[in-house]
Automatic annotation (TrEMBL):
GO terms for molecular function: acyltransferase activity. It comes from the Bacteria. This is Acyltransferase. Belongs to the transferase hexapeptide repeat family. SUPFAM superfamilies: Trimeric LpxA-like enzymes. Coiled coil: none annotated. InterPro entries: Hexapep, Hexapep_transf_CS, Hexapeptide_acetyltransf, Trimer_LpxA-like_sf. Keywords: Acyltransferase, Repeat, Transferase. PANTHER family: ACETYLTRANSFERASE C18B11.09C-RELATED, SIALIC ACID SYNTHASE-RELATED. Transmembrane segments: none annotated. Pfam families: Hexapep. The keyword Transcription regulation does not apply.
């Protein structure tokens, strides 16, 4: 290859790397500037915006925010939709329609649609693409398009401490108790008691905790040991390295067993 072509290729490579860095640096700056917080509300005027709460940029569809309350220290991921009312510009009365408690986490791409009351307790964690709605299409009239028929609506309540896995769907009228686990992709309607694990479409209870008997069926693995609050970063790295070494030893032992067979 001629020398000048080598120089051109080298220059083009450096220019491409520089452009990539600039684009990513610029996008991070846009994300920081576009995030919505109590101090930087952007175009939105929520009924309440809690201390430490943050809506990541870019946001999804947001309207009816005068009837939306956000608790303290909530984390709202990118492309999350929060709506109160069937459409923008409606007067929904004196009371909030959509309420998030303190410490609620809504994963990327989640949707919360509320024309009737939708309430999250404190410390509810949601994976990505969770869908919570107080409204569902009706199909009573066979002569009308389903999308044009008036929906069925009912309030939704999600109890404090619950976890909703990725892609879970919470339908109108659902009432989840405290510390409920909803498996990924589950479709939930009706009542779910405290300390229950539900899965499937439609969701059913597959495990439940009771004071007198514990978890039934019993858990198959021991509970993880929490990390002490005074653990340093260096100690965490050492633990991770020790765990990797143990896994490598276990893997080597499995290979030896297979070879011996």
């Amino acid at each position: 290859m001629p020398k000048n072509e080598n120089l051109f290729s080298s220059w083009r490579g450096r220019a491409g790397r520089l452009t990539s860095r600039l684009v990513h640096r610029g996008w991070r700056a846009v994300q920081r500037a576009g995030a919505v917080t109590a101090d930087r509300p952007g175009p939105y005027r929520f009924a309440r915006f809690g201390v430490g709460t943050r809506l990541a940029f870019p946001q999804g569809t947001i309207f009816g925010e005068p009837w939306i309350q956000l608790g303290d220290h909530c984390v709202i991921g990118q492309h999350v939709t929060l709506t109160a009312g069937m459409m923008p510009g409606l007067d929904l009365g004196p009371d909030p329609v959509l309420r998030l408690g303190n410490g609620v986490v809504l994963g990327r791409g989640s949707h919360v649609i509320a024309s009737r009351t939708v309430e999250f307790g404190n410390d509810v964690f949601c994976g990505p693409y969770v869908y919570v709605t107080s409204d569902n299409h009706s199909y009573d009239d066979p002569d009308q398009p389903i999308g044009r028929q008036w929906p069925r609506s009912a309030p939704v309540h999600i109890g404090s401490g619950s976890w909703l896995g990725a892609g879970a769907v919470i339908l109108p009228g659902a009432r989840l108790g405290r510390n409920v686990v909803v498996a990924a992709g589950a479709i939930v309607r009706g009542e779910v008691p405290d300390h229950a694990v539900v899965a499937g479409a439609p969701a059913r209870i597959i495990r439940r905790w009771a004071p007198e008997s514990g978890w039934q069926p019993p858990l198959r693995t021991p509970a993880p040991v929490p990390i002490s609050e005074d653990t340093t970063v260096e100690q965490l790295l050492a633990l991770a390295e020790r765990e990797r070494a143990r896994e490598q030893r276990d893997g080597a032992g499995d290979t030896d067993v297979v070879a011996g067979q």
